[in-house]
Amino acid sequence: MARIFTYIMHRGGVPDDTAFELTAAAKKIDAAAIPTALVTGWGQELESVCNALRAAYAEVWKIGNEALAHPNAELIRKALAKVVPPASIVLAPHEHFGIDLAPGLSIKLDSPYVPDVLGIEGVEGSALKVIRQEFGGQVSAHVRCDISSGAVMTIRPGAFKPIESNPLSGSIVDKSSEVGPLTSGRRYLQTIAAEAGEVDITKHAILVSIGRGIQEKDNVGIAQELADVLGAAVSCSRPVVDAKWLEKSRQVGSSGKTVKPKVYLAFGISGSFQHLAGIKGNPFIVAVNKNPKAPIFQVADVGIVDDLLEFLPELTNKVRDTRGIAAK
Amino acid sequence: MEILVCVRRVPDTSENEITLNGAGNDIERDELVYSINEPDNYAVEEALQIAAKAGGNVTVVTVGGEEDEEILRREMAMGASQGVLLTDTAFNGSDGRGIAAILNAFVQKGKYDLILTGVQAEDGGAQVGGMLAAMLDYPFASLVNSIEVLDGRKMKIGREIEGGNKEINEMDLPCVLSIQTGINEPRYVGMKGIRAVASVPIPSYGAGDLGLSAGNVGPAAAKVRRVDYFVPSLGKGAEMLNGSREENVEKLVELLAAKGGLK
Question: Which residue of A94, A131, B83, B204 could cross-link A119, Cys pair, CB 3.0 to 4.6 Å?
Fold first, then answer.
């Protein structure tokens, strides 16, 4: 069985949660696997991350280089291509950094790439069978990957639960000297923090959230009316921001805000995993969508198949009646 | 600046309920509405805006069959100066790496300063752009949501990272960028525009033209293969309200009151 490596994301000297999810994924590939952590970075932060990983990993490969102080996937790909042995399996999280790093890494390691894996069924001969989702999560697919020359896979964050086990006291192996000088045609300049909007959707207990199903900017008002009678805020999914119908600060999801409401009303939102990743705290979720196959119905508490443009105003009127609010 | 945009025709998930076919080995495709992959359309718009400022031409390319010409013409109606179809029975059954290899062979025949793709396809996984860049040894950035052309064959690009933050990078040309939705507002394409390009010839290239063999592309080279589709049974799922609209509204208001949604 191929040696399995996990690429560790980290910030402020602390490993990301995915560091422990990836070991769980590695064990699904091969129950006997002793995965090795790959950590790139520089200075004290790198040391802290490597030390923190010793409890979960038997071996931690430390790759220190001043050029790697900021995670630039172009440089990290070059570094990994030098240290990872041929025919290895490399796992990385499927988020903005993994998407940057992994496809090109598979070319440099001359091994196949499987993106966004959320289930692993096991190995038969030289084939690894995994589960992916397609078409916005409306259907899943079994995918077979020939791992005889290794593989690079990105694993969906949250899809694998970390395994509880006794702490190890793993060793740190310094691979820095194998890397040499690193340069790239892509240079990191700075990170710009998200702009704060006029409404802070993270502070609201009730969110009236709208997706592509709202259809046009002029219809946003009908969601705002419901939000007004409920004392809620209007939030949204990505297509609404892409279409410039609401500002970015209203977007719930991995590339938007993480919210923790008590009640989440999802109108015309299909329920991509990137959107669902922004909903925490196990709220009561109501979904209204025209498409009975929309993935949002798999995670909602209550679902209604209907046209939100018809349903929403009636709901608003009913809430007004119930609460004795005079109609505008 | 010569810009190449790699595009794909996909089933439009906002217009379709995706269901499985009888055999379970594919989705039911008979009634599907197809369109250009949404991020690819943003990539073409971005290319057109860059060319308008910096000069140059925009070429759109796709790997597929005759049925894919419609999206090439759609993007030509937006303003792309040329559409190119890469088509060969030997290409069928290629995995992501195979598609990247076909595009790589096409890129080698020309000279492009900038290559754009959409960030991902409906049935893909954000892979072809990164693979193509690695094959070409060009710098790559994914999830790009702003581009500024600088002097001296450089660009300043923004990447969408977690929490709505933005990572700014400087890129040397030539490079490959995968474009995130929302980077711009793609222009409208009317029937008149489509008609105007209806008879513009679309050159096509096969495996022989590109110097490709079954060793690089197609099913023999594909190490990643979809076995089947299925619909997972995930947890309990939602309690579906199946009454009339009036009944559903009433029931929902009761439930909201019980859950603290009516303070």
Answer: A131
